[in-house]
Write a structure and sequence with these properties.
Elements lengths: L2 E2 L12 H6 L14 E3 L2 E3 L7 H4 L1 H14 L2 H4 L1 E2 H4 L22 E2 L10 E2 L22 H5 L11 H11 L1 E6 L1 H9 L5 H18 L29 E9 L19 E4 L13 E12 L6 E7 L11 E2 L4 E2 L16 E2 L3 E2 L9 E2 L10 E2 L1 H9 L23 E7 L27 H6 L2 E2 L33 E2 L2 E2 L5 E2 L2 E2 L2 E2 L15 E5 L5 E5 L9
Parallel strand pairs: 5-6, 25-26
Antiparallel strand pairs: 1-15, 2-3, 4-7, 7-8, 8-10, 9-10, 10-11, 11-18, 12-14, 13-17, 15-16, 19-24, 20-23, 21-22
């Protein structure tokens, strides 16, 4: 079936059902008043812009990109394993000597600390980080997808290519120093500390309702862990979630690891351990895609980037960037302004089954070159990013020109639009298999803990795609995920308000916290856990 791309759609035509369906995803996100410029090392978005994360989310996303790369997030920020140690000690109390307690966040390249969180910072060298199985992406082997392990990539059904890539790619999440310091300061790096937040929330509600206790300053250090009733990261908190693919796996997925036109950022990492190879040696990985999330908005602001040649990069939702790259220019219609150049629509297949119906054409590449805006050229230059020069393929560098191979797919800063349409944002790799229903904000709103400090919910909803893949939630969160108000129960008996779960400020990473004492449940690497889990955790139904 022929694929209709944006570059081919030069002749005017009436919109069809797919055009109308995807139109809400094409909204120009940056206000025309946004003019990002760097002045004396500081970003300016224009004199009238007071909240760029909301008014200029796309240019703000590129600023976050530039800042994270310039801070060498891949080696100087903490991973999940560095934030949540396997045999955690509590914080040292005032006057208590270190020994069986943690005096602070240790500055170290230790990739798997035992007792205390670590932050690499500007330490020499690179932590020996070990990739892990992705938490969210659907995973399907070639054998499961086609019945044969040696099926040529071209013969894999297009609707199943993303889940196959999802099974072979790996993941690492990096958190900046304000995030790690907050986790340590509040003793949120072990299960009992999380359970304490739940107990405090229940006790404060019983004691003060409708008032709340005065919240502590999340950016300050405290001599002892504050009595939190809610997890609320500091405004400077940023996390980057990266999807890596082993270079030796790329060819079987139709990916050229040595692409010279659009080269990949590469890094040597430790693969997942297996029963047959419990201590694998480092090998080369390709950076396929990444999310950046920032607490500049109370519910965080979300941005996702992909390698320009990712298969299906703009499927379902399209790609929306009103700052970094200009999409193909289309002719203006009489009496109307020309179409905005922020949006690449998803591929359509015309004349499906010899009818006049159009459908999504999946898993193809989006070849619209897209011209880098002068604003992005200046931004990258001001941070000395992608300026050229030789690069060590074993670790990324700030100046590596391969950073120019990545595109902003979209941003999100609210659950719904001004007209009540559910906003959606999904990455073809990170959210492989459920992009069509993905909402970064709504998914992360479900990140929560039970009274035991354990994860309260799973990632996926009970709904299924046409390919039989579980889907994600989107739209506004359901208050019943967290608490139940007073109601009349069986035989007219009135039940009291009840706390069901405490939200963890949109951070799923707390599922990797280990207990300080023997417990049934926790990640498999926890010393004190008898029934370890890796990804599948005890979860409440939706």
């Amino acid at each position: 079936m022929p694929i209709l791309t944006q570059a081919q759609a030069q002749t005017p035509k009436l919109p069809n059902q797919l055009d109308y369906a995807t139109e809400p995803f094409a909204m120009v996100r940056d206000s025309p008043e946004c003019h990002l410029r760097m002045r004396d090392g500081h970003a300016s978005f224009g004199g009238d812009v007071t909240n760029p994360a909301q008014s200029c989310p796309d240019s703000f996303a590129w600023l976050l990109f530039a800042q994270a790369v310039s801070q060498h997030f891949w080696e100087d920020w903490s991973t999940d394993r560095q934030t949540w140690p396997s045999d955690p000690w509590p914080r040292c109390r005032p006057g208590e000597a270190p020994g069986q307690c943690c005096a602070g966040v240790e500055i170290s390249n230790d990739a798997a600390p035992l007792h205390c969180p670590v932050y690499p910072g500007p330490t020499p060298g690179v932590p020996d980080d070990q990739v892990r199985q992705p938490v969210t992406a659907h995973q399907m082997s070639l054998t499961e997808a086609t019945g044969r392990a040696d099926t040529p990539w071209k013969d894999v059904p297009d609707s199943l290519k993303a889940p196959v890539i999802g099974a072979l790619q790996d993941e690492l999440i990096y958190r900046n120093e304000p995030m790690v310091n907050y986790v340590f300061d509040n003793e949120l790096y072990f299960t009992e500390g999380l359970a304490r937040v739940f107990r405090n929330a229940v006790a404060a509600r019983a004691a003060y309702a409708p008032r709340w206790p005065a919240p502590p300053d999340p950016s300050a250090a405290h001599p002892a862990a504050p009595a939190l009733i809610a997890i609320d990261f500091p405004i400077r908190a940023v996390m980057v979630k990266v999807n890596w693919l082993a270079a030796d796996q790329a060819p079987r997925l139709g990916i050229d690891p040595n692409d010279t036109v659009h080269p990949f950022i590469t890094m040597d990492l430790l693969p997942r351990a297996t029963p047959t190879d419990p201590k694998p040696a480092k090998k080369r990985y390709l950076l396929l895609s990444f999310h950046i999330s920032s607490k500049d908005v109370p519910n965080w602001t979300w941005a996702t980037f992909e390698h320009v040649d990712n298969q299906g990069r703009c499927d379902f939702l399209g790609c929306n960037d009103s700052f970094g790259y200009l999409a193909a220019e289309l002719p203006a219609q009489a009496g109307l302004a020309p179409p905005a150049r922020n949006y690449i629509p998803p591929h359509h297949a015309e004349a499906v089954a010899q009818t006049d119906v159009e459908a999504f054409a999946l898993a193809a590449r989006y070849k619209e070159a897209g011209r880098m805006s002068q604003g992005l050229v200046d931004l990258l230059a001001s941070f000395a990013i992608a300026g050229g020069g030789t690069s060590d393929p074993s670790r990324p560098s700030q100046g590596d020109t391969a950073w120019r191979s990545y595109r902003l797919k979209g941003t999100q800063s609210d659950f719904v639009s001004a007209t009540g349409v559910e906003t959606r944002l999904g990455n073809s790799v990170t959210e492989a298999g459920f992009v069509n229903t993905s909402s970064c904000m709504t998914c992360h709103a479900r990140a929560a803990i039970t009274a035991e400090g354990l994860p309260a919910y799973s990632i996926f909803d009970r709904t299924m795609s046409d390919a039989g893949l579980a889907q994600s939630v989107n739209g506004t969160p359901n208050p019943a995920w967290f608490s139940v108000n007073a109601f009349f129960g069986d035989q007219g008996q009135r039940e009291a308000p009840r706390q069901v779960a405490v939200q963890t400020d949109f951070v799923w990473g707390f599922r990797f916290a280990c207990p300080t004492h023997e417990s049934q449940y926790g990640p498999v690497w926890c010393k004190n856990v008898t029934k370890g889990y890796s990804q599948a955790v005890p979860a409440r139904p939706n």
